Amino acid sequence: MDRSQKTDAVAQLNAVFNEVSVVVVTRNLGLTVDQSTALRTKMRDAGASYKVAKNRLAKLALKDTDYVGLEEFLSGPTALAWSVDPVAAAKAAVDFAKTNDKLEIVGGSMGTVVLDEAGIRALASMPSLDELRGKIVGLINAPATKIAQVVNAPAAKLARVFGAYAAKDAA
């Protein structure tokens, strides 16, 4: 990698750090190509990205961002996962680490808040942004449904009473 490529890589990582909500640092302990591909696919499906970056270049890219505290995690064979959704990258990384012992969660950061491994696991256990939106829509929709049921209930009872009288007269 020559100097211009390194400069481009640092600029790209810096742009990513300025746009995302969460960054998760993982340690690769001998992932095969197939396992790495599966992890990248899982990340992409969750709306996250996963990249192996040189620690020195990542540390340069962290400067002047909210994620400066991640420098302490960048040693050894590390990779970065990030997403705009605060939960997506953490959830995908933790789910993959549960089934594959060659991926270790080192830590991460959600803005200026630095998280250790337990913090990332706690973040991963939270519902995603889409799940929260679904719950809010359900909560908003529930009272309207109940009002419609209450308004329609007397009319339904009247119809059943008239039906019973009609059946009684026919018999």
TrEMBL record:
Keywords recorded for this protein, A-Z: Ribonucleoprotein, Ribosomal protein, RNA-binding, rRNA-binding
Family stated for the protein in its record: Belongs to the universal ribosomal protein uL10 family.
Annotated signal peptide: none
Function: Forms part of the ribosomal stalk, playing a central role in the interaction of the ribosome with GTP-bound translation factors.
Classification via InterPro entries: Ribosomal_uL10, Ribosomal_uL10-like_sf, Ribosomal_uL10_bac, Ribosomal_uL10_bac_type, Ribosomal_uL10_CS_bac
Family matches, as CDD domains: Ribosomal_L10 (cd05797)
Ranges in coiled-coil conformation: none
Gene from which this protein is expressed: rplJ
Superkingdom of source: Bacteria
Subunit and interaction comment: Part of the ribosomal stalk of the 50S ribosomal subunit. The N-terminus interacts with L11 and the large rRNA to form the base of the stalk. The C-terminus forms an elongated spine to which L12 dimers bind in a sequential fashion forming a multimeric L10(L12)X complex.
Record-level Gene Ontology MF annotations: large ribosomal subunit rRNA binding; structural constituent of ribosome
NCBIfam families: PRK00099.1-1
GO cellular-component term (any): large ribosomal subunit
Name under which the protein is recorded: Large ribosomal subunit protein uL10
Organism: Alteraurantiacibacter aestuarii
A single GO BP: translation
